[in-house]
Design a protein that fits this description.
Blueprint lengths: L12 H16 L7 H16 L5 E6 L15 E2 L6 E10 L1 H6 L5 E8 L11 E7 L13 H12 L7 E5 L5 H9 L3 E5 L3 H7 L9 E7 H14 L2 E6 L4 H9 L10 H4 L5 E7 L10 E2 L3 E10 L4 E10 L5
Parallel strand pairs: 1-3, 6-7, 6-8
Antiparallel strand pairs: 1-2, 3-4, 4-10, 5-8, 5-9, 10-12, 11-12, 12-13
Length: 323
């Protein structure tokens, strides 16, 4: 049976932005209150409500977990109003739940959509090695190269000294060797506490100082970042990183190649992918939700891979009215 693909003239990202706005607004009420589960639950509930109105038959490939672990937006759930097109969906109602609960910057609500069958399903592999760059360095870097070689390649591609290269790395003990090598190479490190979707996107945004992202992070976040970078002309590479022997054995039993370097198109392929992110707390990429006397203001970034369109959307939401 033929599958109805996403019509190029229909920009789903313009509809998805309402979904991430709703999730961000709901999560913003829990900023700094120290309860990341409550914040995540509020964002999930809001995202679930709004995504139901989008005209699509969507399958959640990257969600909040298996059905018995998450009440809503679980892996394998079907969402949307049930009409074509048939699409794969990746959601992260809060990329940066800890950031949100502690009132720190950089938390975002994100969603990505691609044609049915186009998104990589990470199976049991929760983590992956990652490397992300913007358009200028696309095609010049590789996970097969050393940290130093990649930094030199980025510097050459962007025609800047190595000393001006800024690498984004999640602030984790496992990354100390990476951090040390970046500094030994002469480049600078920008450590982030959470939210490597925003970190990967920052490498492709001209107004950002970020040049490259290194490190081991969530595989679901890698798939979501791939959808965004596909629309921004950037690149992400990943290699599955089992946390233990049990996870490794499970992945091998399912046929995963743990040595394969997954490129952007492997993680989120197809001709048409869409991405939306809305800031929850103020960050380098997006402003967070700002509560005003009679409403709230949000800032979002949306992309569309087929056209390479990147939009910033500033929205004022009046209290007591439909969004």
């Amino acid at each position: 049976m033929a599958i109805s693909h996403i019509a190029p003239e229909r920009n789903l990202s313009l509809e998805l932005v309402r979904v991430t706005e709703a999730a961000a607004i709901a999560a913003s009420r829990w900023v700094g209150r120290g309860d990341k589960n409550a914040a995540d639950g509020a964002a999930v509930d809001a995202m679930r409500e709004f995504i139901a109105s989008v005209r699509m038959d969507g399958l959640v490939v990257i969600g909040e977990g298996e059905k018995d672990e998450a009440p809503m937006l679980y892996n394998g759930e079907r969402v949307g109003d049930g009409n074509p097109p048939h699409v794969d969906i990746a959601v992260d109602p809060i990329d940066g739940t800890t950031l949100t609960s502690l009132g720190r910057g950089g938390a975002v609500a994100v969603i990505a959509i691609a044609e049915a069958g186009a998104m990589f399903n990470p199976g049991p592999c929760v983590y992956m090695e990652k490397l992300a760059v913007g358009p200028e360095a696309r095609g010049h870097v590789s996970l097969e190269l050393s940290i130093t070689e990649n930094i030199k390649a980025v510097a050459k591609a962007k025609s800047i000294p190595v000393t001006e290269v800024i690498a984004i790395v999640l602030d984790r003990p496992r990354h100390q060797e990476i951090i040390d090598e970046i500094r030994e190479a002469g480049a600078r490190v920008h450590l982030i506490g959470d939210g490597d979707v925003a970190g990967a996107i920052a490498t492709a945004w001209p107004e950002s100082d970020a040049d490259i992202l290194f490190g081991v992070g969530g595989t679901p976040e890698g798939v979501i970042a791939a959808a965004a970078l596909a629309g921004m002309g950037g690149e992400i590479q990943g290699r599955l990183y089992p946390r233990n022997e049990e996870e490794r054995s499970a992945a091998l039993a399912l046929g995963y190649n743990l040595d394969q370097i997954l490129i952007t198109e492997d993680l989120c392929g197809g001709e048409h992918s869409f991405f939306s992110a809305t800031g929850i707390t103020d960050g380098d990429l997006l402003r967070g939700v700002h509560h005003l006397s009679k409403g709230v203001r949000t800032q979002s970034l949306i992309t569309r891979s087929s056209s390479g369109t990147v939009r910033f959307v500033d929205t004022y939401h009046a209290f007591g009215r439909h969004n």
